[in-house]
Amino acid sequence: MRIKTLSVVLALAFGSAAVGQAHAQEYPTRPITFIVPAPAGGAVDAVARLFANEMSRQMGQPVVIENKPGAGGILALQATARAAPDGYTVLVTHSSPIINTPHLYASVPYDVRRDFAFVSQLCVGNLVLAVGADVPARDVKGLLAWANTNKGKVSYGSYGQGTYAHLVGAYLSRNRNLDMAHVPYKGEAPMAQDIAGGALTWGVASLVALRPYLDSGKVRPLAVMGNVRAKSLPDVPTMAEAGFTEPEFTPAGWIGMLAPAKTPQPVLARLEKEARAAAQSAAVKTRLATYSLEPVGSAAAQFRREFETTEPVVARLIQSSGAKAD
């Protein structure tokens, strides 16, 4: 009887493994959806579309984009967490919805560690602090001095509540008693447009969103976030070089891929493999360079470690900035 029971257990185990392998071999058999917590026109959307095109070519199935902006990324992450865990719904996101947002809202309808599987960090890049051309400041210290003499009239934008752009603005406003108004947007593109049009004083955004306005002279870059200058803006200093050495200004922006937590491991492995291959493809590398982004294509475990390392640092920034979801 015990031998028979053991045989049944082994049969079930091997049967499950065979099913998993078969699933991985068959996957994908239909289109895959990338959910993006931003509207069209910003860095996350551009990168999602770039990887969608390359991974579609690699996997032989269409990859479509579903933009779900708003609520600090909550809508997109909630939709992904509730999706069938079958590999056909994937999240492509910047760091804020998975790291920042849970610390800014009293509650969110997802738990990153419980509800998501890390697939790969796709790329990293600089974020730029920029002002409209009509703003007289030529550097960050000049911007803050101008804001000090125009209290109540200066506004800064962000691509959503709790994003890094929001935290930087809140930190500068609070710690220097500048009373600058926060204006949240559903994404980078409309924020950059308002900076260029003069409806917004300044903001922090990616070069993808700012590039058309930098090229036309409607927006002026004052500093870049992170520890190194942007390759495409060699004359623009880092925040540290501009005299702001606080660790709050050192993070660089990144974009990564996650899936619902219960997605079968063979499917996750396939997604990881294809995402990593796409990141190293000539087509993706060339296009990312035009966005001033560097390809990464990390292993899932490495991406998870990056999250675990960064999350407490951002939590401290949120506390010191006093930022809250409005």
UniProtKB/TrEMBL annotation:
User: Which stretch is the leader sequence?
Assistant: 1-24
Q: Does the keyword Aminoacyl-tRNA synthetase apply?
A: no
Pfam families reported for this sequence: TctC (PF03401)
Keywords in alphabetical order, please: Signal
User: Domain of life here?
Assistant: Bacteria
By its UniProt entry, which PANTHER family does this protein fall under? BLR1237 PROTEIN (PTHR42928:SF5), TRICARBOXYLATE-BINDING PROTEIN (PTHR42928)
Q: Which family does it belong to?
A: Belongs to the UPF0065 (bug) family.
Q: What is this protein called?
A: Extra-cytoplasmic solute receptor
Organism whose genome encodes this protein: Cupriavidus numazuensis
